[in-house]
Each structure stands twice: as C-alpha cells, then as structure tokens.
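Forum > Structural Biology > Help requests

Title: Can anyone predict the 3D structure of U-box domain-containing protein?

Hi all, first post here. I have the sequence for U-box domain-containing protein but no way to get a structure on my laptop. I'd be grateful if someone could post the structure tokens.
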Amino acid sequence: MEVPQDFRCPISMELMKEPVIISTGVTYERKNIEKWFFSYKKKTCPATMQSVEDFGVTPNHTLKRLILAWENSHFSSPSSSSSTSLSSLSSFKQYEMVSLIKSLDSTPFKVNVLRKLREIIEIGDEMKLDFVILGGLEVLFQIIVQILFVSSDFMVFRACEEALGVLQHLPIFQDSDGSISEIFLRPELLKSMVIILQRGSKEARVSTVSILKKLANSDFKWNDVLNIQGIGMIKSLLELASDDISSKVSSSSLQVLIKILDSSKKSRSKAIEAGAMFTLIELLPDSNRSKCEKILHIIKLLCECTYGKVAFMEHHLGVGVVSSKMFNVSDIATKICIKIFLLICSSCPTMKVLVDMMIYGAVKKLTVLMHMSRPSSTKDKMVVMFRNHSDFWSRYPCFPSELKEYQSLKRT
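Reply #1:
Sure, ran it for you. Structure tokens for U-box domain-containing protein below:
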C-alpha cells in the first residue's frame, strides 16, 4: 500500500514512527535526523539545504496522530472502519490547519489560505479550539490590522476581509469564567473593523457585524469603541440597519446600537450627531415586529437626552409614525411608544408636537391606555402630561370628553 508523501521521512523515505520538527520547519524521523546531525556532523537541513544553528528537535504530535489514524484506517477490521475514517479525517484536517497557519506569514496567497482555514474551523468546535491553541487568533490579528497601514493595497484589504470571515466563527471568550479574549479588546482590531464596515464587501460587513453582535452579548466596554471612532461606527451600523442586505444583518446592527447607546449618555450624543434619529424614524414605517421594537427602543434611549428630544420634534413624521405603532405591533412596542411621548411632553414640547399628537391619534390612544391600565408610575406620569397640556388639546373638536376632568383638576 502506498504511503502518503507527507508521512515519509525525507531522509529514508520510510513511514515515520517518531516524527520531529527541526528549526527549518521540516519534519523528519527522529533517529534519522539525529544521525545526520550528530553522527555525520552535518549542519544543514537535508531537505532544503539551509544552514542550521539550532540542532534541537520538537515532537510533531499532530503528524504522529495523523499517521496513526491513517494506519488504523487501512489495517483495522471492517466493523471499525467508519469511526476510524472520521478520526482520520479529523486528524488530517488538524495537520492541514497547522500547515496553513504556518504558511500565512510568507505566502502571497493569503486570501486562498484563509478560505481553506475557514472551511476547516467550520467543521466543529474541536477545530475552532485547535485553531486558537495553535495561535491562530494572533495570526488573524496581524493580518487584519495591516489595513490600518496599507489600506490602499487591494490584496491587503481582501486578506483583512477574509480574516474577519474566519474570526466570526471563533469564540470570543477566553476562559470558562466568561472573560473576553484579549484580542477582541485591542483598539487596532476595532479600528480595522470600522474601516470594513464603511468600505468592505457585503460578506465582510456581515462578518464584522456578527463579531460585534457577539461582543454585544457580553460585558464588552463599549465606551472604548466610542473613544476610538464612535461616530464612524454608529454611522456604519445605521447604514447596515437601513440596507436590505438581510433582515438578520439589519437586526444585528440595531442590537449592537442598543448596547452602545445603553453604555453611556455620551454615546447617545454621538448617535444624534451621526443623524440616528432621522434615519430611525424613516425606517420605522416599513419595519417588521422585531425590527420595530428595536428601533423604538433606540428612539426612546435618544429621547432621554435633550438633543434627542429636539431631534425627534424636528422630524415632521416623528409623532405620526410612533403613534401609528401603538396597538399595532406588540405590547412591548406600545409600552415604548408611551415612554417616548412621556419623554417628549416632559419638557416644553413644541406646539407642532402637541398638534400632531392630537391629529395623529396619539392623545386618544393614550386616553384609552390610561383608562385600561392599573395604577402605576407610568400612569401617574400620563395624568401629569394630560393636566399640563389638556388646555391646548381641548381646543380641538376631537379632544376626548373623558379628559375634561383633568382640566378641572389642573385649575384646582
């Protein structure tokens, strides 16, 4: 039976039993290479003829497991052939992964190598773990951050995109205690991801959003992102939320935005500066249930700061669109809509906002909700809102008669 070339010692051309690696990266049978160095006093690599200064050898455990699996698959009983075949495939892929990772430093065909690596780690969690153990994360990082220095080089840009495609399939947690792997905390990685969000291909942007979504589900410190390139990232996420690439990408972008805006008031100011309020109000009418809830949540977060309220009131469709979602999406969406109107009316709303709330039915819907709901802090705030603005709303014929009592309560 023919022995695979990679399993043969380059010196004896026989199947290796104890493969070891020397400083040039070539693997030999231990007894053969030691004889070459110490018996024949040679100072070169037999396969490459490179000069060798370090004569130490390192056991090639991965190749040894592969050889053993190959032997078992060809000399085992028929009953065990199926399980042995799977083991052989796994061992072969592990060996292939080692070779590919080593070649990334020197090969000019990084894109093709990264694609092969992605195919291997997609096989399962064992392959992903092996990739991390072999130092794959650091190799990916070095490829990704090259875009910061030579972003105009097309091949560097493509390699960065492919590396992010590999990175999205890897776990972000380093230990069982849930700590985030150090590589995801490096500012250079985040800067590179922002560049891909802004200029990358459709697939690369999807990969980047997938990584950010994993971070959003962890205890990641989003303030660090804002200090690096906050407005740029927010604009890119808003663009992805608006794009019809896929509903999954749009939803993930909104989920990341929620995490960023939840992190601090500073982040909300940056979002308003990036035009988030205008974009979100424009997106709201045609959004499905899940997307609608996320958009309303973000609008509510933005309205919690003064400039957010101003941005909402300046949009001529803001009141109408939010009002249309009450009762028509979900209980969650309705509750968020109530909070938005309470926030808007809590600090000197413009006359146009009060008029729009009456014309678009927000006042009527809020009246219904107030009569239906049980005593709560939200209901108390609604009562205050009606007391403060019922004089203005009562000028309109459509003003609900049930609210007359709040006018008298205000006078008393």
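The first strand starts at residue 19 and ends at 21. The beta strands are 19-21, 27-29, 58-59.
Shout if anything looks off.
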